[in-house]
Backbone:
C-alpha cells in the first residue's frame, strides 16, 4: 500500500529565510506526487504536482519541489518565506496500486517569525 | 460551478442525531472523494466514487457512515447516531478522472457533536 511520511510536524522559520519541507513516499513504481497548502479554516489548495518528466517542478506562490527517485522523496522548497506562507502543508501521493486515490501525509505546520 | 462546494459549512448536532453533509463537485469531474480531518491531524480517506459507484469505501469507520452519489454529480455523506468522536472537518474533493490529474477540494464541513 502507498504511504506518505512528513517527518516534521512543525517548522519555524524567520521571514525571508529559505524553507524546505520534507516528504517521503513508499511505493514501488513512480507515483503521482502533490503538495497542498491549507490555511486556517480553509480547504486544501494545490501548490504543485509531479506526474513525469522534469524532476524539478514549479508551483504557485514561488514554491518548487524536486522528485528524487533514489530517495523516494518529493521535498518542497521556497527561497524566501513570507509571513503569509504560514499554514499547514500536505504532501500527497496517488498511484495505480491504490487506485489513484490520493493518500496524504500528516502535514507540516509552518510558523513564520517576523 | 467554479469549484467544489460543500454544505453546510458548519454543523452542530446533538449526540445520537443523524447528519447529512453535501458535496457539489466541479462539473464534469467523474471522481469524487470524501476525507475526514480531525483537529490537528492529517486527512483520513473515507470513500471514493467513480461516477455513481463507490469502488472503494474502505475508509468508512463504521456502519454508521454511508455515502451516495447521484447523477454523477452531488454526493451526500450521512452519519447516523452521531458520536462525539465524529467531530471533525469533512472534506470533499473531485477530479476530472482518476490517475494523472489533481484533486480539487471544497472548504469542508466542520461537524461538532455535543
Residues:
Amino acid at each position: 500500500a502507498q504511504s506518505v511520511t512528513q517527518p516534521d510536524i512543525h517548522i519555524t522559520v524567520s521571514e525571508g529565510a529559505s524553507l524546505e519541507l520534507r516528504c517521503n513516499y513508499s511505493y514501488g513504481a513512480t507515483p503521482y506526487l502533490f503538495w497542498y497548502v491549507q490555511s486556517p479554516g480553509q480547504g486544501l489548495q494545490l501548490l504543485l504536482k509531479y506526474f513525469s518528466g522534469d524532476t524539478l517542478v514549479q508551483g504557485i506562490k514561488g514554491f518548487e519541489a524536486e522528485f528524487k527517485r533514489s530517495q523516494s522523496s518529493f521535498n518542497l522548497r521556497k527561497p524566501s518565506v513570507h509571513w503569509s506562507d504560514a499554514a499547514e502543508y500536505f504532501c500527497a501521493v496517488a498511484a495505480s496500486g491504490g487506485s489513484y486515490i490520493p493518500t496524504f501525509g500528516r502535514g507540516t505546520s509552518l510558523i513564520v517569525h517576523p | 460551478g467554479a469549484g467544489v462546494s460543500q454544505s453546510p459549512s458548519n454543523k452542530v448536532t446533538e449526540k445520537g442525531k443523524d447528519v447529512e453533509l453535501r458535496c457539489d463537485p466541479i462539473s464534469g469531474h467523474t471522481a469524487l472523494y470524501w476525507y475526514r480531518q480531525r483537529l490537528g491531524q492529517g486527512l483520513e480517506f473515507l470513500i471514493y466514487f467513480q461516477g455513481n459507484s463507490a469502488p472503494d469505501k474502505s475508509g468508512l469507520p463504521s456502519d454508521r457512515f454511508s455515502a451516495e452519489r447521484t447523477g454523477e454529480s452531488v454526493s451526500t455523506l450521512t452519519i447516523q447516531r452521531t458520536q462525539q468522536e465524529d467531530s471533525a472537518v469533512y472534506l470533499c474533493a473531485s477530479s476530472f478522472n482518476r490517475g494523472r490529474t489533481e484533486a480539487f477540494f471544497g472548504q469542508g464541513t466542520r461537524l461538532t457533536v455535543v
About this structure: Chain B touches chain A at residues 4, 33, 35, 41-43, 45, 48, 55-56, 91, 93, 98-100, 102-108 (CB under 8 Å). The first strand of chain B starts at residue 5 and ends at 7. The CA atoms of residues 51 and 72 of chain B lie 5 Å apart. The mean pLDDT of chain B is 94.
